[in-house]
Amino acid sequence: MPDEATGLFGPSSVTWKVDREAALLLGGGRALLLQLAHPADAQGVADHSDYRRHAFRRLNRTLELSLALVFGTRREAKDAAAQINRRHSSVRGAGYSALDPELLLWVQSTLIDSTITTYETYVGHLSDQEWEGYYQEAKRVGSLLGIRARRFPARLADFQAYMARSQDRDLEVGPLAREMARHVLRPLPARGFWPVEAVTAGLLPARLRHDYRLPWGVAERSAFALSKRVLPRLIPILPPLLRYVPPARHAFRRVAA
User: Measured between alpha carbons, how far is 243 from 69 in angstroms, rounded to an integer?
Assistant: First the structure.
């Protein structure tokens, strides 16, 4: 198959197998709150985005570019990376820069870690070997976004240890992060119980859930438990039109052609 059509990965990759699942969108809030728990990332978002009025539009654009990196042709993946990098180049201020190699690594790591967590929670179980393959493939995206391969922990086990250390050492949920979290979790006007918030709270590490002061009462715990029972049974019987994200369906058709 031509490299241009298969893009960075192709249909035999673990990345295409995993990232095609629409259910992974349930982990988007988790990834964003992990990012915002890093004070430098929170300040950069606050200073350089209109998250209060256009949180949903910002999330949608980020998703479009992320899926283009994975399922686009090589040209489309490089174009998406260039757009992200241009945006990052202007995000800088007192004490932070979006091009800081450590901050870049942290943001990319939250996406990898949240994908693994959400897939295992809602879609199914993959072997350690498959997740190792997924992690190694993810480094290709990192390289397009300015993260040198040597900055990534070498193996998946090293990556998991890095995530644990970072949560203990680098994360601090302050008033700014909590205020932004409200806009992330409720991008549209909502009152009362909000299921997305319950799912995000359930997927987050317990300490961060507490630090963000997310509701975690009987209603939230019950909703999260119900989602873990129902979705793993529902997802396998969904038609592809509902189960897989549109860029993935298009990519598989493109390669088959």
Answer: 20
